[in-house]
């Protein structure tokens, strides 16, 4: 309204000035000047009025925004302090918070509807912002007071949770890694109430996740026990623990008790299977020490053996069964690989099939086919070790003979020279590696020689009488 009064006053002032000029200078000089000034003044006043209206609207919006902020800050603080009430007594602080709310209501600075009251409209933006700062300071003070009450209770809560999880670990559950993660969060520094509440939430969630892992482990152990006897009474504890997973103390008690009973049932069977698996792995390991079996295979068997030896808890029955499956798979793969290598080698060595030179192991094919990972452990190991023994021996034999074949061209001239010099050559006197193999191979390639009892010699020429008799027989056959 003041803007319109100001506009009217400006107009009247300009008209008065124009009238004065009219009296002094006359109509012709002043009329145009007066009209121009009047038009400028009118449009200027209208522009100012529009701008001022926009400014007022912006101020009103900001006032409402501050009011909403006061409400939000109060609600958040009350929520956090109420959450703190789960561990400590915050009733006095909530009463003080309620008093602050009543004070704000009296000032028409709390309810959404307060923005429509005359009292609120009469407030300047500066006054409302000042009340907001005062309110914020009071809320912070009340939150800090609640944090001071909450801190020792939170420490006690964390210690209780840590103790419950330690019982699970002591009971045999494999949660060492998860407990380490829990400890990392528990060790984080938290000063404000909000940080403390967030810390409690994270620790609670981690503890529930750990309990869930233990429930799953208990179910797996229970499944392994079903073949050994009645587990109904124990089995009931596990669903009850799941139903109480949000109550750590109760859930932990049920889980520790159920695992103790279940592992007691498994102890004898577990020890028997573990002993048998360790024995099987040791038998196979003895057979893969030769240079023809790669170091990676030995490392794989040694790794499985180490794991089997470290499995000392009946609750690890599932892991033990997993190790058994890995043992069968690895051993079967090793047998298949060695068999394939022998077949490839014998494509070359088979050309020299001779009792004195090289012979295959005719049992290998049947032994390899008899090995099946589906067999129970004892039967599998018996068949696998027999096949491995034949495979490794034959592979060593084939590898040696392959070297003989590859080096024969260099050794043959030495044999020829020795024969020419002495007429015979004994393996014991032939200074090369694998002398008997080289001499047997030479005899196979040269039919005019014999290799008997470790000695290579030229065949004796037939006598004159025998030759004459042979010729007469041949002539007689032609006549007939």
Explain the overall architecture.
The protein is mostly helical. The protein folds into three domains: about 1-150, no CATH class; about 160-265, no CATH class; about 270-420, no CATH class. The protein is about 80% helix and about 0% strand. It contains 16 helices and three strands. It has helices spanning about 1-25, 25-85, 90-105, 120, 125-170, 175-185, 195-225, 230-235, 235-245, 250-285, 295-310, 315-350, 365-370, 375-420, 435-445, 465-480; strands spanning about 425, 450, 455-460. It has a three-stranded antiparallel beta sheet with strand order 1-3-2. A hairpin with a 2-residue loop joins strand 2 (about 450) and strand 3 (about 455-460). The longest helix has about 60 residues, at about 25-85. It is elongated and about 160 Å long. The termini are far apart. Mean pLDDT is about 80; it is low at about 50-55 and about 465.
Secondary structure elements and pairings:
Elements lengths: L1 H24 L1 H58 L6 H16 L11 H5 L2 H46 L5 H11 L6 H33 L6 H4 L1 H7 L4 H40 L7 H16 L6 H33 L14 H7 L6 H46 L1 E3 L8 H11 L3 E4 L2 E4 L5 H16 L1
Antiparallel strand pairs: 1-3, 2-3
Helix pairs in contact: 1-2, 2-3, 2-5, 3-5, 5-6, 5-7, 5-10, 6-7, 7-10, 9-10, 10-11, 10-12, 10-14, 11-12, 12-14, 13-14, 14-15
